[in-house]
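Quick question, first post here. What does this chain look like in 3D?
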Amino acid sequence: MTSTPRIRARSFDAAAPLYSANRPGYPEELFDALEVLAGRPLRGARVADVGAGTGIATGRLSARGADVVAVEPGDGMAVEFRRAHPRIPLVRGDGDRLPLVTSGFDFLTYAQAWHWTDPARSVPEARRVLRPGGALALWWNDMDATVPWIAEQDERIRELFRATGATFRALPVGLAFTTREVRWSRRIPLDVHLANHASHSAFLMLGPAGTREFLDEERARLMPLFPDGTVEEQYVVSLSVAVA
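> Answer (accepted):
Ran it through. Tokens below.
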């Protein structure tokens, strides 16, 4: 990674409790789709979840019966991970330098983490670590911009960060991916919705004062839409799987 993405990636460490408390999880249908696209069940599979963060995806993979090891570079995120998942093995490293045995895994998963890697390094590492027939699975969990209020909020966020630009997300070349979209939603307090935004790297880099100003304005805009203080966040998970 270049220095700017690396700094953004490590910004989560200082906000790991905020991240753990407010980030959305994943629907069961995502893992159903993962098994279909990979052509094998998670139960009994050897899985490495890379960029595991606080373990939101790792815990779900383990609950599906997978034998999971987490890979996470950040100190603060690792502390939160161990607090939430003390029985799941955690090793320190990242997708560009996987501290994992060659041909040792049936699945290599990146839950909203692939864009922090350098594909020139992470693709060869994925090929090395996966067993023949193993699956590289990448997914991103985005709020559904077909919902009008979400689209309007997205535009305000894009305008706020227009000078810095958005993080580029693309599938790596040279691998045959199959893609599936999974839609889901969650109902949460408005405070949690705003705190979820505050846990994203762009806001962490913006700093407390700028983040507070923007989110206070968002609170004022959203209260008339959600007068009971409960927001329904609607999501689209974009899942892409390539079988080695």
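The longest strand covers residues 130-143.
The chain has a mean pLDDT of 93.
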